[in-house]
Design a protein that fits this description.
heterodimer; A: alpha/beta; nine-stranded mixed β-sheet; six-stranded mixed β-sheet; B: six-stranded mixed β-sheet; four-stranded antiparallel β-sheet; 28% strand; globular; Lipid_II_synth_MurT (chain A); ligase (chain A); ATP-binding (chain A)
């Protein structure tokens, strides 16, 4: 390590210690300071760590958390970054504040798609894990193809790194790369050929630009796809989900290559995250029994979908930020065997996405087929979400533009189970209110 | 079963689906129900023929650059049918990319000129490193109606002499940021850059399209009840 890097690291560590000790914060500032003093600081960590980069639109955070748990079954030193610190500054902070290791450690980092080439410029990763690429309503003019190209700019700098990619995502099979590639995916069903619903992103065959067809589709454009025109099809899978045993909003039991696993979280999309972590684990030499132990030993890793007790109501707050995620959440809550009430809190600040059109891609029509006794809409754009529900044929809706009154309304819901879907800032506002009333701990967001 | 039955062609609905245009179909069905009409939707994509006699309404949405490029290559196969549909005064809603593709051409992300259908007399230029993004309100000078939407486009569209704007900009950018127009009307084809989606926030436009479709298809029926339908504000 150069003197400059050492000094920069020292300055960053000191600022982190100061911020952490006296200001109860500090995740990107120390990284920012360190980068100012030594823009090449990341390079100095390449001798100290083997790096795995986890990237993609949805599922980065849980895939990373699960992967760390899996790898800790075998490796002593596994470093990772906290949620939200997935850009350069946050990553630098992660490295400089890590406990000093005697031998080479393993860093498993969630990296924002656009930051993949930045990180790869300094540290050549041993492996990449790709989850999926969907359209995020935050920056819809950034297209799925552009996003993948950004990631590939990083891959180009690491042609020997093994790619562990979701084989059900056709984009990850669309370019010829020199890297070794391991694909994972779902292999639990096989149907006669069918088309995905028209309102699905990325249905064009990357080789001949005809519409792809499917023998199995899990959600969005993911599945066992093929092109009837040129023969392009899903690659061979190395690891696959072979059976879905039981799905509820809080638990998923499924089989990978014939062995049963349970994770303490609902949602088909989370099974993909577990499968990705499994595949990385196997690549890194972790045994299936160890992976099972990692998945099933401690449920806190799934903290994102905690159930909050509000005077006897079991309230689940779920962040929604793009159509694919929204539809997955709607699919998930549908698996609740108990009756439930449903609320949607919608804001349109920058962090929520300033265009609320994306809610129209949500399949709310399916809710109308359940006997949901009470709906509620809230947030600054409650009118938009109310119109969406109205046009889905839903009319038993309370409107509550004032979020401070939402907590009282929750208590009046007629069911024990209450699901609250919320855009990002609406979720933060609601959590703050719940913290003030001491239903959750203050600052409880990861 | 409703008394009336309309068939809607969702043009390239499996490729031009980036901006939640499907919401416009949901809104059309919602208002159609109140007008005693059902709507059957069929996606007409590449590899499909478009026969104008098969449809009473059409929706032409917007997509990503790549998909729009693929669509533009397929358009010559459907040009005659679409021209007949439009010139027969059948109602069409064209949003964003669909709007641009009805005109002579637009400029793609890499500066290339991408030919459109040229059925409507507008053309679309690009702007460097800028997009018109944000909430927008316009007012139609003839009806006095105000429309609300969300715009998000790089293209700058300039109308031809046979086209009327959908409205004049009250707040926002509109077609090109210069002449204060937004969207276009030609016969019963309504074009706009509005997302939101447009018909979910502006039920009056949905009503206009549906009335036109009904009157075309059932020339002898009395639609005075449908005309009297009050559209409640949703925005």
């Amino acid at each position: 390590m150069s003197i400059r890097s050492s000094f920069a690291e020292f300055a960053g560590r000191s600022s982190y210690w100061f911020l952490h000790t006296f200001m109860h914060g500090g995740s990107s500032l120390p990284g920012k300071l360190t980068l100012k003093l030594d823009p090449n600081i990341l390079q100095s960590f390449s001798q100290k760590y083997d790096l795995v980069i986890i990237t993609g639109t949805n599922g980065k955070t849980l895939t990373t958390a699960l992967s760390v748990r899996v790898l800790r079954e075998k490796y002593d030193q596994v470093l990772t970054n906290p949620t939200g610190s997935n850009m350069e500054q946050g990553i630098v902070t992660t490295f400089i504040t890590a406990p000093r290791a005697k031998k080479k450690g393993l860093a498993v980092l969630e990296v924002d798609e656009a930051n993949v080439p930045i990180v790869c410029r300094y540290i050549t990763p041993k492996a990449f894990v790709f989850t999926n690429i969907f359209r995020d309503q935050m920056d819809r003019y950034g297209e799925i193809y552009t996003t993948y190209k950004k990631i590939l700019r990083g891959v180009k700098l690491a042609p020997k790194a093994t790619i562990i990619a979701n084989g059900d995502e056709q984009l990850f099979h669309s370019k010829d790369l020199p890297n070794p590639i391991i694909y994972y995916g779902f292999n639990h069903e096989h149907h006669p050929a069918f088309n995905a619903p028209a309102n699905t992103d990325g249905l064009l065959c990357p080789k001949c630009q005809h519409i792809l067809r499917y023998h199995m589709r899990t959600y969005a454009g993911l599945g066992d796809y093929f092109c009837p025109h040129c023969g392009f099809k899903r690659p061979e899978l190395t690891y696959s989900v072979t059976k879905l045993d039981k799905l509820t909003p809080t638990n998923s039991t499924f089989e990978i290559d014939g062995h049963q696993y349970t994770i303490g979280i609902g949602g088909l999309y989370n099974i993909y995250n577990a499968l990705a972590a499994y595949s990385l684990g196997r690549f890194m030499g972790v045994a299936p029994e160890q992976i099972k132990h990692a998945f099933e030993s401690d449920e806190r890793v799934f903290g994102r979908q905690e159930i909050i007790n509000v005077d006897g109501k079991q309230v689940t707050i779920i962040l929604v930020k793009n159509p694919v995620g929204l539809n997955q959440v709607l699919d998930m809550i549908e698996t609740d065997p108990q009756p439930f009430s449903f609320a949607f809190l919608l804001n349109a600040n920058y962090a929520d996405g300033i265009d609320t059109s994306w809610i129209w891609d949500g399949n709310f029509e399916k809710l109308a087929t359940h006997q949901i006794p009470q709906y509620m809409t809230g947030g600054e754009r409650y009118k938009d979400i109310t119109t969406r529900l109205t046009m889905a044929g839903i009319d038993n809706v309370w409107h509550e533009p004032d979020l401070t009154k939402v907590v009282d309304k929750i208590k009046q819901m007629p069911t024990k189970h209450v699901y609250i879907l919320a855009s990002y800032t609406a979720m933060l506002q609601l959590r703050k209110l719940l913290a003030e009333k001491e239903y959750i701990k203050k600052g409880g967001m990861d | 079963m409703a008394k009336y039955y309309l068939r809607l062609a969702h043009l390239y609905g499996d490729l031009l689906n980036t901006y939640s245009d499907v919401g416009n179909i949901i809104a059309l069905r919602y208002y159609a129900k109140q007008m005693n009409a059902d709507i059957a939707v069929e996606v007409i994509s590449i590899d499909n023929q478009f026969n104008p006699n098969d449809f009473d309404l059409a929706l032409f949405g917007g997509g990503q650059d790549y998909e729009q490029l693929v669509v533009s290559r397929d358009l010559p196969n459907k040009k005659d049918g679409l021209a007949r549909f439009i010139n027969d005064n059948k109602p069409m809603l064209a949003i964003c990319g669909g709007y641009q593709l009805l005109g002579h051409y637009y400029i793609g992300a890499n500066g290339e000129k991408i030919p459109g259908l040229g059925i409507l007399d507008h053309y679309t230029l690009s702007q460097d490193n800028n997009r018109f993004i944000g909430d927008i309100t316009i007012k139609n000078p003839e009806t006095g109606q105000e429309y609300h939407g969300f715009e998000n486009h790089n293209g700058r569209t300039f109308l031809g002499k046979d086209e009327q704007p959908l409205g004049m900009v009250v707040t926002g950018h509109g077609n090109n940021g210069e002449d204060h127009t937004e969207g276009a009307i030609y016969k019963s084809t309504y074009c706009s850059y509005f997302h939101g989606p447009i018909l979910t926030r502006n039920g009056e436009i949905a009503k206009t399209l549906l009335l036109r479709a009904l009157k075309n298809k059932y020339p002898d029926a009395d639609f005075s009840n449908q005309e009297a339908l009050k559209v409640k504000p949703t925005f």
